[in-house]
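User: Structure tokens for both sequences below?

Assistant:
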Amino acid sequence: MQFNPEGVESCQPLRQASGVAQSLSRDFIHIIFSTKNRQPFLQPVTLREELHRYLGGILAGMECQPIIVGGVDDHVHLLCCLSRTCTQARLVQEAKRSSSLWLKTKEPKLATFAWQNGYGVFSLGFSQIEAARKYIAGQEKHHKKVSFQDEFRGFLRRYEIEFDERWVWD
């Protein structure tokens, strides 16, 4: 689900009255997390699209401007501007908590829905935003060739994050 059609230029800090000291930031992050045990809960496509809109609303509600939310039947990608007053951990916790509760009300088969315990958060420079947006928009095609686990391992390697294969998939 594309958000912010004007582009990242509209990801601006909240305005304050003139003459007041400001704390400013513009941190772009790419968040990735999967369903528990990579179960393909997020189908059909209409449910997935509705979930992506819902997750975008959570981001916006936390003043973390969504740029795009996407994914396939077993995981999601969120690209947003992180608010200067919100931590990554709090944002992910609330996105997972709220969306899990919401999904459980959608269909009886989702009564046991859960997200994995872990997640990945990767920082992006301004010049990387458009490529990340296209990457997330192309998830359906991408995952015809690459599994979630291989995709996630690739991000961990690219960002030089050490991980233990035994614990990264819980």
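Moving on to the next sequence.
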Amino acid sequence: MDLFTKSKRGLEMKIARRDKMKIYNDLLSILQSEINGEEVILTRLQLKLNVPFDRLKVYLKQLRELDLINDETSPKLTKKGKQYIHEYEKVLDFMKRMGLKYQ
């Protein structure tokens, strides 16, 4: 896969798009790694996830509605959120064993 593309301005790097399942997993994994008793700072979360702040708010709202986190302003993983991460890893492992590629 070519990581660069030619444009009028020169070489530009292609950025792989993530689907919603991957974004949810990335966000939940970041939250899980941030567990150290401190309040989660949303701007730090935004930077680690590499999404615009308004989109982060949408994702947090969706995760709350799915009961994967407990709060949108100071998110913490629920039991269901931890299970999501575990099941997502199992799906990736299965796909790898089947010889299928997933971003």
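User: Anything stand out in the second?

Assistant: The domain at 19-97 is CATH 1.10.10.10 (Arc Repressor Mutant, subunit A).
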